[in-house]
Amino acid sequence: MVDLETLLVDLADESAELDALVAPLPVADWARPTPAPGWTVAHQIAHLAWTDQVSLLAATDPDAFYRTAAALAEEPDTFVDRGAEEFLAPPAELLSRWRAVREGLATALRQVPAGEKLPWYGTRMSATSMATARIMETWAHGQDVADALGVARTPTARLRNVAHLGFRTLGHGFATHGRAEPTAPVRVDLVAPDGATWSYGPADVVDRVTGPALDFCLLVTQRRHRADLALLATGPVADEWLNVAQAFAGPPGAGREPAAGSVPRGTAT
User: Fold this and answer.
1) How distant, in Å, are the alpha carbons of 4, 51, 128, 193 from that of 113?
2) Measured over all CA atoms, what is the biggest interatomic distance in the chain, rounded to whole angstroms?
3) pLDDT at residue 264 greater than cutoff 70
4) Which of 22, 84, 144, 231 gives 34 a disulfide partner, CB atoms 3.0 to 4.6 angstroms apart?
5) Distant-in-sequence, close-in-space partners of 163: CB < 8 Å, separation ≥ 6
6) How many C-beta atoms surround the C-beta of residue 193 within 10 A?
7) Element holding 177 (H helix, E strand)
């Protein structure tokens, strides 16, 4: 199990990489559309600042978090968009706000007593799980920004946090899409950026997913369509999982359309 301090270092590094990508942008580029419908580069950063702020509230004032969550629950299909809109500001102000709140969150998570669970939407999580989720979110929304700017990011070992969360949320993906959680275990073997293998689940099972770790992370964060990824599913549960995988909380995501010319692939009998 990865310790909290290591996770917070990874979170800081992931945030810093995205920060360095957007900080020098001219104001006009902050208005560039990203793959998320209706969201600009500014919306992506505002969303991260907003979710970091909500996470900080969960870590420091659970009662206030629950009040906020109850109010947001009245509009479950729009509250994420509203959160991003509310945090929009001129680029320099938005960056300053995001930097301050993410540093505050790291400080707060370090102070969470061992074993204590923090409230979240529909669940509760430890400080380590919260940090892992923030890494996933920062990486995923950073991918949207990179796509909008036409930047190819170099995958890092930090992807292991996203891959681990993607595996752990297998049941969540099924449940979110209104399907029964499978009882059959799934084995996942991924090729890491450095060529090593990251493996999850029991070795001797029928259902398996194999492929590049980057592709798996793009799938579970719904940043690419399955047809555009080099992932191979063996067995019925693994095959169905790749259609519903979702590492993030909330209602089922719309996902992304396959790239022009993509053909179905990635299933073995």
Assistant:
1) 12, 22, 11, 34
2) 54
3) no
4) 144
5) 188, 190, 198, 200, 213, 216, 217, 220
6) 15
7) none
